[in-house]
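1st attempt posting a full record on here, be nice pls
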Amino acid sequence: MARAWILPILLLVSGSVVATGLILMGSLGTATAVLLVFVLLAGVNSPLVFPRSIGAPEAQRRSAVDGRPVVFWRPGCKYCLRLRIRLGRSARQVHWVDIWRDPAGAAAVRAANDGNETVPTVFVAGRPHTNPDPAWVREQLPRSA
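the predicted structure (as C-alpha cells):
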C-alpha cells in the first residue's frame, strides 16, 4: 500500500521545495501557483481518485452476479487514470481492483497478460481486455445500472 503513495508524496515534496525557493526569491504569487499545480498533480496520481478497491475474488463474484466489468489497476498508471477520467460517473458502476493491494488481482492480471502486470486490464464476462478504449468499457456496463 505504501508504494501507491510514493509518487503523490514525491510530487508534494518537490512542489514544496520549488515553492520555498520561489518564496525566498520574493515570488509569493508564483510560489502559490506552483504549489497548487503540484498539489493537484499529487491528488490526480493518488489512489483517492479511484472508487474504493475490493479484492479480486470479491470483484469476480460480484461481476458474476451483476454483469459489471472488473477493472484491474494500479496507482500512478496514466492509462488507468485515463480510463477512470473518461468513464466519469460511470466509474462507480465498475468493480475496481488495485493490483498493488491485492496479490490475487496481480496474479489474475499476470495470467491474462503473459506474465506481465499490464494495467488497466478489464474483465468482461470472464474475458480479459488489456487497456481497452474507455468508450468500449462504458458500452459494457449493464443498462439497468
